[in-house]
Amino acid sequence: MRAHRWWVVVVALLLLSGCLVDRKQRGTDIDPQLLAQLYPGISTKSDVLRVLGVPSRKSVIQDREAWVYDYSLEENWVLFLGLYSEKRKTIQHRGVAVLFLDERVYDYVFME
Question: Which of 40, 35, 45 is nearest to 103 (CA)?
């Protein structure tokens, strides 16, 4: 019976001194090959929606209407060292902005 209690103590200590890592992806990571399907002066807003989907947000860049596709990857560390500790860190952040002139694609810009 004593050996059984010893294992319970060891397992409890391992659980209390462990850590968990959770990764969360926000937005869509746009593949440059998808952008190659959009042609400045020819492709329309409808084409952009079909190829890239709904943007994360809309903005104005270089005095042009811009649809921004943000992407980030975050790590969340939870440490159990007898105490609770949490650490969040963005390990990747990038995006693409598609600029428009009227209803047609004017250009696109990569953002880091």
Answer: 45
Phi, psi of 102 (to 5 degrees): 60, -120
Spans in the chain with pLDDT lower than 70 = 1-7, 9-21, 79-86, 90-91
Contact at 8 Å (CB) between 68 and 55? yes
* Residue 27, beta-bridge partner list: 71
Question: How far is residue 102's CA from residue 29's CA, in Å, rounded to a whole number?
Answer: 26
- Going from N- to C-terminal start, the domains of the chain cover 19-111
Compute how many other C-beta atoms are within 10 angstroms of the C-beta atom of residue 6.
9
Residue type, 49: L
Per the confidence metrics, is the pTM higher than 0.90? no
Of residues 28, 34, 30, 64, the one with CA closest to residue 47: 34
The pair of structure tokens assigned to 54 is: 């709904």
